[in-house]
Design a protein that fits this description.
This protein is an alpha/beta fold. It has six helices and four strands, in the order βαβααβαβαα. The longest helix is centred in the C-terminal third of the chain and has 23 residues. It is globular, with a radius of gyration of 15 Å. It comes from Comamonas aquatica DA1877.
């Protein structure tokens, strides 16, 4: 990986409205051009949009939200899609689903996070859940972006990403 060629990372979740959106925005923020993050869902609902509480948490953290939108993972399996180096599932339901055949056979890992939008809690309770999820993701993604280039080489990437799954407490 060179500075001219960022590592492309795709974050997957079921609906692509909360966790995967947070991860995409956060990695693009932290990645300093070394990483290009994307997100998608295995089954986003019709007219699905990013969760407004997630966008609010990102904005309050100083992380750009423009351009974030929910989309199907099929977009990234189609001809002409950006080549992915690493695909990370961030919710348990997407981790168990049969994924498309990804061009180039990228490295894969599962970094599970609880759904901050789940449940019947108040908006304040859910907002705090989004803050906590963003904090947990930041811990893991800071480890990723600070790894030396040899740990991000294609031959090591799968083991590196999977090791990070266990390295940050949830």
């Amino acid at each position: 990986m060179t500075s001219a060629q960022p590592l492309n990372v795709l974050f997957l979740c079921t609906h692509n409205s909360a966790r995967s959106i947070l991860a995409e925005a956060l990695l693009n923020h932290l990645g300093q051009g070394r990483f290009q993050a994307f997100s998608a869902g295995s089954s986003p609902r019709a007219n699905q949009q990013p969760n407004p509480l997630g966008l609010q948490v990102l904005e309050r953290a100083g992380i750009a939200t423009q351009g974030l939108h929910s989309k199907s993972w099929e977009v990234f399996a189609a001809p002409g899609a950006p080549h992915m180096d690493l695909i990370i599932t961030v919710c348990d339901s997407a981790a168990g689903e049969v994924c498309p055949i990804w061009p180039g056979h990228p490295a894969t890992a599962h970094w599970g996070y609880a759904d901050p939008s789940a449940g019947d809690g108040s908006d304040d309770t859910k907002l705090e859940a989004f803050r906590q999820t963003l904090h947990l993701m930041r811990q893991r993604l800071e480890l990723l972006v600070n790894l030396p280039a040899d740990k991000l080489a294609r031959t090591c990437l799968q083991g590196t990403a999977r090791a990070l799954s266990a390295s940050a407490s949830q």
